[in-house]
Amino acid sequence: MSISIPAVPLLSARGLTRRYNGRGGCAGVDIDIYPGEVLCIVGESGSGKSTLLNALALRTPANEGTLTYRTAEHELLDLVTLPMPRRRKLARTDWGFVHQNARDGLRHGVSAGANIGEPLMANGARHYGKLRETASDWMSQVELDAARIDELPAAFSGGMQQRLQIARNLVTRPRLVFMDEPTAGLDVSVQARLLDLLRTLTGKLHLAALIVTHDIGVARLLAHRLIVMKDGRVVESGLTDQVLDDPQHPYTQTLVASVLPA
């Protein structure tokens, strides 16, 4: 997968560190993500990839390092010192966050349509007819039956709930979406449909996406660039095909070999 990478990154971290009681987490991470690109972070369970994602998304505070974000107006924000009201505004406008478990990213007491419409209402939308029309359109975009707009999330399968969560995150047209293992726990056939949908939507919306996954196949299908983590540190990074077809670090070589057919 190829992409023309702009010169100026959207999100940048230098020396980013998040430790728990001095142990685990991630340490000394340098990372850039550019407008319109999909960047995957891969590694085994415990490698620090989800900790890094949460630190980058400001869901957990970093202990050390710098973190900056460039807005659509070309303002460079220091995310470490950014006041909480501005952080909240960023999270509901420029950013999205897709949880591994859709139950954590949906409101289960309201309908599918309301789940999609709520982020728009948080940004000032009030016209009921337009909200419902937009929700219906997004249900169709993520391959859900728009006739089920008034049903609760519990009425949908796991894969459908994940697509509903994606619609809830993308309806505001964010510039950057964080995704934590978005296909984990789904059947293979459901995974394949969801991956195809993600690839279509990121390209269509020119959306930057930072995706954590333990699945090399997911990374190969979706990512323009790849970061490999082990024991909380980045051990290899580069263009996806380059890293997976010619891995340099022994750990990356082991990861790639583990998914090769016998």
Please provide a brief summary of the model.
This protein is of the alpha/beta class and 262 residues long.
Ends: how far apart?
25 Å
Number of domains: 2
What order do the strands of the largest sheet run in, or round the barrel if closed?
6-7-8-3-9-10
Q: Beta-sheet strand percentage?
A: 15-25%
| Average of per-residue pLDDT values | 92
**Count of separate DSSP helical elements:** 9
CATH topology of the largest domain: Rossmann fold
Helix proportion:
25-40%
The largest pleated sheet is described as: 6 strands, mixed
Q: Spell the H/E element sequence.
A: EEEHEEHEHHHEHEHEEHH
Structural class: alpha/beta
What features would you highlight for this structure?
4-stranded antiparallel sheet, 9 helices, 262 residues, Rossmann fold, membrane, P-loop_NTPase, 10 strands, alpha/beta
